[in-house]
Write a structure and sequence with these properties.
193 residues; mainly alpha; 5 helices; DUF4870 domain-containing protein; membrane; MamF_MmsF; transmembrane; transmembrane helix
Length: 193
């Protein structure tokens, strides 16, 4: 059996006293701030041990090299404006394509002129084609009702055309924007300047 008070194999460890730390007390019975044997050191220091050599206290030192590049999220917001419009068209039935360009316009448009130009262009296009889709749906349903359903055979092309045009030009604009090119949408009214 080994002696519990014997030094460790490397001689650097100091064993804990068998009975635990002893705290000297004053006449009132409370611990004093003396430096008697067995009292614990400053806050955070392990009892009876020194930190290993080479490890400084506190925060790690900063690394070498260039500082990190600031994040430029312009391209992300361009993708939100264009491909988000396409997603709104697909999910929202052609009438919700304007939501993502509006989010890009209101969140980054005031501070970033590139995002503002792209989001205004996408917003104008998707508002125009949302209006065109509503008109196409009204014509489709009214024409179908008047012709007792036979008009639906011909008029179903109108809502489908608004869907295809919105998706196709939105994808083209998104691809151009990912290559840092501005794409002026065709067939759109300039409602927002």
């Amino acid at each position: 059996m080994t002696d519990p008070n014997a030094p460790g194999p490397y001689g650097s460890e100091q064993p804990y006293p068998a009975s635990g730390p002893s705290y000297p007390t004053s006449s009132g019975g409370s611990p004093t701030s003396g430096g008697a044997y067995g009292t614990q050191g400053p806050y955070g220091a392990p009892y009876g041990q020194q930190p290993p050599y080479g490890t400084p206290y506190g925060q790690p030192q900063p690394g070498y090299g260039y500082p990190p590049k600031p994040v430029d999220d312009t391209k992300t917001w361009l993708m939100v404006a264009h491909f988000g419009g396409v997603a709104g068209v697909v999910v929202g039935g052609t009438v919700a394509g304007w939501v993502a360009p509006l989010i890009a316009y209101t969140s980054k448009g005031p501070t970033n002129p590139t995002v503002r130009a792209h989001s205004v262009e996408a917003l104008n296009f998707h508002i125009t084609w949302a209006i065109a889709n509503v008109v196409a749906l009204v014509v489709f349903f009214c024409g179908s009702a008047v012709t007792l359903g036979f008009g639906a055979i011909v008029l179903w092309v109108l809502p489908l055309a608004t869907f295809v045009i919105s998706v196709a030009f939105g994808i083209i604009a998104g691809v151009k924007a990912s290559n840092n090119e501005f794409y002026p949408y065709p067939l759109s009214m300039k409602l927002i300047k």
